[in-house]
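Repro case for the chain-ordering regression, as requested:
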Amino acid sequence: EVQLVESGGGLVKPGGSLRLSCAASGFTFYNSWMGWVRQAPGKGLEWVGLIKSKAGGETRDYAAPVQGRFTISRDDSENTLFLQMNSLKTEDTAVYFCSAIVKGTPSNPFFDYWGQGALVTVSS
Amino acid sequence: DIQMTQSPSSLSASVGDRVTITCRASQSITTYLNWYQQRPGKAPKLLIYAASSLQSGVPSRFSGSGSGTDFTLTISSLQPEDFATYYCQQSYNTPPWTFGQGTKVEIK
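-- result from build under test --
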């Protein structure tokens, strides 16, 4: 059974940093592209970023609002995805979902598995 | 970046109704279009990928169609568990892979 479990959420002051983790199991993590999607309170889904597998060059892409402040990384030996968030702003307050492309392929990508989300609150 | 626009933003329907949600892309995305369902307080769930392919385990009352810039999600006979918010997402070429703003399906 595929499982994605986020951790590391919490309350942080504007300008602060936080690191989210996503523990993955039940699929071939090292071969899968992984992503983060967020949802501000009462709002829709917002794509945050993607990291490809090592075979895909482990390249990273980010949404414009987080470019330069957020960094996605992965530890294939621990089947864990990370989201390092720096210079946090109040508008970064959201539930952050970890997502995986398992059945999808690089030529036909879609997020077919999702974690339950981690709440990040940025407030003074 | 490619913009995705869904319509309507919300709708009211009854159990058994046929429901159609539309998603339009700001440029051609061929068939790189996915649909997700999200119930309150839950993670999104993949329903349709590549515009018209039904994800394993998803009831056959859900279907998707379209290509280029215009896409449709249809629920042939709305069930109580289908009251949720639905999002389209494009995964064309280089990210960002943007989402539509969502369509909330409510009970009439």
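Ordering looks correct now. The CA atoms of residues 2 and 26 of chain A lie 4 Å apart.
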